[in-house]
Amino acid sequence: MNMKRNTHVFDLYWEDILVAKVIPFLTIRECFNFRCVSRTCLQIIDMYFAKLKSLKLMNKGFSPHTFNVFANTCTRLNLLNLSRCQCISDNALIPMLRKNHDIESLNLSQCKNLSAKCLQPVILHCNNLRILKLARCSWLTTGAIEALALHQSKLEDVDLAFCVAISENCILIFIKKFQQIKTLNLEGNKQVTDKCLYTISKYSKSLKLLNLGGCCEVTDKGVRALALHCPNLEGLLIRGCTKVTENSLRLMRNKVHLDRRPVDPVPVPIYVQI
Questions:
Q1: Rounded CA gap, 24 and 17, in Å?
Q2: In contact, 71 and 42? CB cutoff 8 Å
Q3: Across residues 218-236, what is the average pLDDT?
Q4: Where does residue 146 rank: exposed (0-12), middle (13-18), buried (19+ CB within 10 A)?
């Protein structure tokens, strides 16, 4: 009597087919639903998580248990984006960062329940960090920025928008250290003055995009220094900088993208004798 063997999905090679070709098509929610089906499913999903290079959880509402699963399984991350994840705490994030020393891009923008302590594993161990986004992180301290400047060396894209607790002096230290920086966002930092722009013009020769929106203390003198000494600058965002006028911006017209249109000259009245 011939016995027909039933073939099922788990007969496929897990690593080469299921993990590499099938599971990537599932959403995170679907992965966790599949993970709950059986012990085998759990093993397959955990194998998939362990191979992840990129984890993007932006603005996602998830339980502490969900994040703990990622913290326990993910060890090869190059990119971690947690922007606007309000539920993330130091206790949850630090274990994950300690296991992922290959992170090149980290986005913690608008994560309000963290503290500067969470950056310690990144500062000390993520030696290939190139992109760091910390916009609206009111917990970011001058000490954390100084530690970054001391231990890191490869940052190229940095977002420090609305980080109101850091001083201009520590920003100056930061600029002097990361002379290869290409994108820098200082929007909303009213502590930034022309001194910062002078330093950028001296040290940031590779800078391509600079956001100074709302930095109301910068003036034409600082912008003029950028125009004369930042040859690779492609974009300058200057909206809200009330002390900057067309006197300096005209030096960049047709060479650099600006977010302010030129001010039309006031027409000279013509008097016709009747």
A1: 11
A2: no
A3: 97
A4: middle
Given this model, what pLDDT does residue 59 score?
73
Query: Do 32 and 66 form a contact (C-beta atoms < 8 A)?
Result: yes
Sign of CA dihedral 25, 30, 35, 37: negative
Residue among 197, 179, 189 at smallest CA distance from 159: 189
pLDDT digits (tens, 9 = 90+) for 67-109: 999 999 999 999 999 999 988 999 999 999 999 999 999 999 9
The span from the CA of 206 to the CA of 179, in Å, is 7
Sign, Cα dihedral of 209, 214, 215, 221: positive
> Which CA distances in Å does 251 have to 17, 254, 261, 265?
58, 9, 13, 17
Report the alpha-carbon distance of residue 22 to residue 207 in Å, rounded. Answer: 41
- Beta-bridge mates of residue 236: 210, 258
**154 Cα distance to chain centroid:** 14
The first and second tokens of residue 51, run together, are 């191979």
Q: What is the mean pLDDT of residues 174-192?
A: 97
pLDDT tens digit string along 28-38? 888 889 889 98
CA separation for the pair 231, 208 (Å, rounded): 9
% of the chain surpassing 70 pLDDT: 89
Q: Token match 């290079």: residue?
A: 53
Enumerate residues 6+ apart whose C-beta is below 8 A from 64.
87, 92
224-244 CB burial, b ≥16 within 10 A, e <16 = bbbbebbeebeebbbeebeeb
Strand-pairing partners, residue 54, are: 79
Spatial CA neighbour of 205 closest among 230, 173, 176, 228: 230
- Alpha carbon distance 67, 57 (integer Å): 10
